[in-house]
Amino acid sequence: MAETSTQLSFENVFLSFGGTLALTDVSFKVIKGEILAIIGPNGAGKTSLLNCVNHFYSPDRGGIIFKENDLTKIPPHKIAKLGIARTFQNLALYSGLSTLDNLMAARHIHMKSNMIQSIIYWGMGQKEDIEHRRVVEEIISFLEIEHIRKAIVGALPHGLRKRVELGRALAMEPDVLLLDEPMTGMNVEEKEDMARFILDIHEIRKTTIMLIEHDMGLVMDIADRVVVLDFGSKIAEGTPEEIRKNPIVIQAYLGEEHI
Amino acid sequence: MAVIRPSGDFDRNYNQDMALIRKPWQWVLLLLSIGAVATSPYWAPPYVYIKANQIGYTLIAVQGLNILTGFTGQISMGQSAFMLAGGYISALIVTYLNLSFFIALPLAALGAGLVGLIFGIPSLRVKGFYLAMATLAAQFIIPWFTLHMFPEYLGGQNGIISAPVPVIGSYEFNEPARFIHITLFVLILTTIAAVNISRSRMGRAFVAIRDNDLAAELLGVNLFGYKLRAFFIAAVYAGLAGALRAHSSWQIGSEMGYDLSESIIFLGMLVVGGLGTNLGPFLGTSLIILMEDFSNIVGTKVSAVMLTGMTERVLTSFRPIFFGLILMLFLIFEPRGLAYRWQLFKASWRLRPFSH
Ligand SMILES: Nc1ncnc2c1ncn2[C@@H]1O[C@H](COP(=O)(O)OP(=O)(O)O)[C@@H](O)[C@H]1O
Ligand SMILES: [Mg+2]
């Protein structure tokens, strides 16, 4: 990587629930424009780590620095506005809205219409809707979901919903995209599509991506670097090549399965 | 369910795609309906425009509740208490400040809105059942306030004060045949506002909160801010409804109702009509109010035949039974309400004869 400026920096993050430690002294940096995979067994603390970025969880100690802000001190909705978007391990779509409206709803942070302008709508509210509709339509055609544009997402099959959720995150035009197991429950073909989308996003939009994924083959293919968590601790960090050879990783995690 | 449109109905730009009323005949139909209600005092029996007035102001309260409960997913059991607040504010402004009803009306809406805002604060911390309990407080505190505070202004234990007849120049809106025009006018405005809200940035934030509050927050919606906006708007609607009801019946007070059972009936109307749709409040409110009258007729007949001398008692018990029955039938057979049925009907009609 030619230029290596830091996009997101985890600094000694501790998180516990009651007595159990979910994250222990986790520190690493996410480099601008990279695809960083977070891997580790179930319960290792991967989702918890993303939840800390969103300040859905508050770390007991430590900081997460993004654009000179400590995210652990900022309310979640403002973090979104700073440029962080995500998808969820278990889908969290607005199930009563259409695909289009799910994406439009994600434009919230970029829109300005206030209560009065929303109520009057003519003028500002409508003008803004049309402007943002253009951005959303681009994403819809990029993800090849034109045919379900007006479908209520609650009724869509799982694979498509995952895709709509990615679209919703993209509609926020984030600097950092957090993807929590974007390919779970998908068949091979859907996984390949999803991998292609992730690579395209990375390529075209230069978005920094933090990706949690269990499919090791895929991770090794698309990630620039990998961070390995085990029981809440970071046990390794490096390129896929390095991780594959790392004896601690092999022992703690990969030993039980093939890689 | 995807929206199925008649074939050949394509959009050439986003503006058209977003339009709600797509065909000239739809405009014609809409204007004809408004015209029919507006002219009803000249051609229909009094029952029609008296009912239209009652359905009108009730509908406004239910529209407000729909924004809060149907779109934003926050249950409120205080809607009729906010009507009471609106009715009082407007009556007091007209009586003591000598201002026109038409100035008092928006002020009453605003006042009720602020009261609603206060009772919306618990939504920061609680939702679902607990929020319902918290909003229930409004249903006790507001009537208590009107009964016990400032009795010289609020009527004290009588639970009633008079609400002056609105006037423009020398024209008095002193009977339903005239008042219906005020109600209809306000209803048109509240309907436009409701439709606009539901298709705008704020409306999408509301539905986001309803469907997944966690995701909404992580995707940039200020939960508390938008919940409070929903509470405010719902209470503004209630305030308008309360003021209309007060000045069309010339009085306001807890003696006139505005109690918990009314708040619950509003929720029932919403369920029957279809939560979170703009058509729902129209269908649900009309159906329930007309059904109440129907139950009165049936009740009178029944008691005349079987229970002579007990008409009064039969009638008072008949109405809640009817309401309860309708609500239960809907919850069992069509929890998505009449508006959803209407959508299905339209879609199947368009696909005919290839609907299967
Ligand atoms: N909200 C919570 N309450 C209690 N424990 C939690 C919560 N979220 C996560 N945990 C615990 O933290 C640990 C890490 O969980 P998680 O981050 O979901 O793991 P992963 O995503 O790597 O599978 C687990 O032991 C889990 O039980
Ligand atoms: Mg997880």
Structure overview:
The complex is a heterodimer of chains A (259) and B (356). With 259 residues, chain A is α/β, with parallel strands linked by helices. Chain A folds into two domains: 1-83 and 175-259, 3-Layer(aba) Sandwich (Rossmann fold), CATH 3.40.50.300; 93-157 and 164-173, no CATH class. Chain A has ten helices and ten strands. Chain A has helices at 46-53, 76-82, 99-106, 115-120, 124-142, 158-170, 188-205, 216-222, 240-245, 247-252, and strands at residues 6-17, 20-31, 35-39, 61-66, 69-70, 84-86, 176-180, 208-212, 225-230, 233-238. In chain A, the strands form two sheets. In chain A, strands 6-7-8-3-9-10 form a six-stranded mixed sheet, sandwiched between helices. A four-stranded antiparallel sheet of chain A has the order 2-1-4-5, with helices on one face. The longest helix of chain A is centred in the middle third of the chain and has 19 residues, at 124-142. Chain A is globular and about 60 Å long. Chain A starts with 5 loop residues before the first strand and ends in a 7-residue tail after the last helix. Helix content of chain B is 73%, strand content 2%. Chain B has one domain (44-350): ABC transporter involved in vitamin B12 uptake, BtuC. The radius of gyration of chain B is 21 Å and the shape is globular. With 356 residues, chain B is mainly alpha-helical. Chain B starts with 13 loop residues before the first helix and ends in a 5-residue tail after the last helix. Chain B has a two-stranded antiparallel ribbon with strand order 1-4. Chain B has 15 helices and four strands. The mean pLDDT of chain B is 89. The chains are: A alpha/beta (259), B mainly alpha (356). The A-B interface holds A 54, 56, 75-77, 79-81, 85-86, 88, 92-97, 101, 104-109, 111, 113, 115, 117-121, 125-126, 128-130, 133-134, 137, 148, 150-152, 155, 168-169, 172 and B 1-3, 14-15, 18, 193, 196-197, 199-205, 207-208, 210-212, 214-223, 229, 233, 276. Residues 46-47, 89 of chain A line the site of magnesium ion.
